[in-house]
Specification:
mainly beta; 5-stranded antiparallel β-sheet; 2 domains; 9-stranded mixed β-sheet; Immunoglobulin-like; single chain
Length: 265
């Protein structure tokens, strides 16, 4: 994650796509024995509203040899160990010198998205902006005044129906309380050290705008993150810590029913 003091305002977008649902690239085994392939697709928005989209592949390699991932890639990088790989028109071929319990490879996708440079559409379109004293700016860091951070998330009608109807977007905006004073927002937040992380969620096919504002001396920001994941109410209940409350409510309802029956008897 980058900081504004490095003269860039970076937003990271994460889209989780598992092969058990829909695969973005066709995978073909050559002579290497590979299993358990999983892929995570994410994009990085820059301050000019462009996007670079990457796929990280995790796989179990049972034997040495070559393995080809078919797709339209601009570049690649080995994340586990520096092995030989070849980029070509059909995709990328990895040359494994040995077996690996878990091997990670990152490929940069050539993706045709609004404002970007394959045929994959994210379920949401994200636009971020910063206002200083009511005027939209391209923040370089060090500015002072009243700052508004605005993150617009809207449903992408051109996205595949599966993603658009089944994926949610979660926005996290970290704010340093040493930099921001008189913070105002409708988002819920968690304070860790001097950093307040404000979070909001957009349900499938919905749109929302999130705003955090405050008085600033010498502007500096951590990266804003937008995570897109498959909608699962059960996991969200656990994540937001309300599962225990629901169970207690269910137990309380049962005790109330028992008490009512005893009174009736």
């Amino acid at each position: 994650m980058a900081f504004l003091k490095s003269r860039r305002f970076i937003t990271s977008v994460v889209l989780l796509v598992f092969l058990c649902s829909i695969s973005l690239q066709a995978l073909a085994v050559n002579d290497a024995q590979v299993e358990g392939v999983r892929e995570t697709v994410y994009g990085v928005l820059n301050d000019h509203e462009g996007m670079s989209v990457y796929t990280v592949y995790k796989m179990k390699v049972d034997s040495p040899g070559e393995y080809t991932i078919y797709g339209n890639f601009a570049s690649g990088r080995c994340l586990t160990e520096d092995i030989e790989f070849r980029l070509h028109e059909q995709g990328v071929t990895l040359v494994f010198p040995k077996a690996y319990d878990a091997f990670y490879f990152q490929a940069e996708n050539k993706v045709d998205l609004p404002g970007t440079r394959s045929n994959v559409m994210l379920p949401f379109i994200v636009k971020e902006s910063i206002e200083l004293d009511g005027q939209k700016i391209t923040a370089a860091g060090g500015e002072s005044g009243h700052v508004r951070i605005i993150v617009e998330v809207r449903s992408n009608e051109e996205a595949d129906d599966f993603f658009r109807e089944n994926f949610v977007a979660q926005v996290q905006i970290p704010i340093d309380t040493k930099v921001f004073r008189n913070i105002k927002t409708d988002l819920s937040g968690v304070l860790v050290g001097s950093t307040y992380t404000f979070s909001g969620m957009v349900l499938p096919s919905q749109s929302a705008t999130f705003i955090v504002e405050g008085d600033v001396e010498s502007l500096k920001l951590d990266s804003i993150s937008i995570t897109m994941m498959k909608y699962n109410m059960s996991s969200m209940i656990e994540e937001f810590g309300i599962a225990d409350s629901i169970r207690e409510m269910e137990e309380g309802s049962g005790e109330l029913a028992d008490g009512t029956r005893q009174l009736a008897d």
